[in-house]
Amino acid sequence: MKKIAYFSPLNPIRSGISDYSEDLLPELSKVYDVEVYVENGFQVENTNIKENFVIREYAEFSKRYNDKQYSAILYHMGNNYSAHKEIYEFILKYPGIVVLHDYSLHHFFAAKTLEQGNLDEYREEMLYCHGKEGLDEANRFLNGEISPIWESNSLKYPLNLRILDNSAGIIVHSQFAKDLLREQASYVPIEVVPIPAPHISKLEDIEREKEDARGELGINRDDFVISALGYANPTKRIDKVISALSVIKSKQFIKKFKFYIVGEVPPSYPIQELVRKHKLENEVVFIGYVNLKDFDKYIAASDMCVNLRYPTQGENSASLLKIMGRGKPVITTNIGSFSEFADDVVLKVNIGKDEISHLVEELVRIFRMDRSIISSKILELTNNNHTIEISCLKYSMFIDDIVRGNKVNINLGISSYLDRFTSIFDSIENDTGKTVELNISKIYKVFYKKTGDSYD
């Protein structure tokens, strides 16, 4: 059994990637001998992971890597700087397979550079990833001419090139992300591995599961329950949902409903004030952060969910797959990876001046429809494409292709060979040695900038 080193945030780091990894690791361990790496002194919260995996600290990795202990390294990389800052440094130093959970890493680099007061490092990253155009855009922002790039234009300036250049392969969760990466770096092997649903209900169990969950959570079984789940930042557009519900209440389209906001709300997002403004205090319930078990109960207790997202960083939503695994109708934003789901399975609204009116229409439509029909379609799609077994199979096939050398990052391969050749001439102090080294450098630059090879 091949041994792999596994780098990822884990709970108690509150991150969707922590939850994702804790769902994936038990299945992956059926195929590989997995050693999990964590920050020095970090205590893994999940008992199952703690008891069934070798947990090593970052400080142990270098020696074990040099001793060739691992067939592959698997890194999970996301936009949260505090959760991924050390993982990023390992990616650059020890190239491995990177699971890129967010196509754009602009938030990560803004925290890494600007929040630390290092403006020149931010400029340097924009230059490296996006050339003179990127540098000019960075200077426009720093001169106060435009709004923060990560809020307005992060898909155009994703700041991910350094990771692409230094990864043996990239795993993403959508064709949308893969297509964007292909335009940037055709020399990197890229694989789409859909996010799995950790639990998939049977159609005949949905109503029973709803009743049981409502009993445990103290939710009235006669209410029409709508839920938004996960960290409730402005990109989740919960303010738009509240505005739509205000219309629904005033026109009595749905006479008895509750809107549960299950997740932490940042102080900078004043949706409590919006609830008071629209006199929805009796309809909107703020739950705050909950553990994974209760998170799942709120999904089961719901009649439907909303999972809006704008702007996008090219990310996918693990909470969306949890919702789909429970067979719940869900409304998303018609953008990025969310657009890839069939319209009769995942309902969508467009961004723009009609967003709230479209939300009203879709919420009322779901309330009035025979929800068992759409639940059946949701569960069929989830079973066919998003089981943990399917996800793990795609992981193993890609990892094995990388290990066997069937798929190679050309940039890394050329760099390795050029390093060997240039080292030969390091000791030559005549014009011949300098000429050879100069020509090798030119060859590298041409290969690096012009290669069009791809690995589909």
UniProtKB/TrEMBL annotation:
GO molecular function, one term: glycosyltransferase activity
Domain Glycosyl transferase family, first and last residues per copy: 210-362
UniProt keyword annotation of Glycosyltransferase present: yes
Keywords: Glycosyltransferase, Transferase
Keyword tRNA processing: no
Xref: Pfam families: Glycos_transf_1
Signal sequence residues: none
InterPro entries per record: Glyco_trans_1
Identification of the protein by name: Glycosyltransferase involved in cell wall biosynthesis
Organism (species): Fontibacillus phaseoli
